[in-house]
Amino acid sequence: MNSALDIVLAVLVAVLLLGGAFWMLTSALSMFHARDSFSRINVLSPATGLGLPMIVIGAFLQHTRTGGLDPVVLVKTL
């Protein structure tokens, strides 16, 4: 049962990290198509709203999966 939970967490971490990287890459590539500064600010919204939280949560789950739950790391994450 423990190995099944470990596999599920590993897949969840991979999905979160790859999804966050996708949103960051999409926003970075969209910066080339934005013409003015206001459009460039709007292009960064998916990266800051979706990409960064997904990467942070994925990294926290990976750290928790490998090293156990540490309250100090939880406070740093929040």
Main sheet: strands, sense, barrel: none
Spans with pLDDT under 50 lasting ≥5 residues? none
Rounded average pLDDT? 87
- Oligomerization: single chain
- Helix residue percentage: over 70%
Please report the number of helical segments. Answer: 4
Count of beta strands: 0
Report the β-strand fraction as a percent range: under 5%
Classification by helices and strands:
mainly alpha
SSE pattern, N- to C-terminal: HHHH
Radius of gyration over all CA atoms, rounded: 16 Å
What global shape is seen?
Answer: elongated
Distance between the termini: 30 Å
Can you offer a commentary on this structure?
The protein has 78 residues and is mostly helical. The chain is elongated. It has helices at 2-30, 37-43, 45-67, 71-77. 85% of the residues lie in helices and 0% in strands.
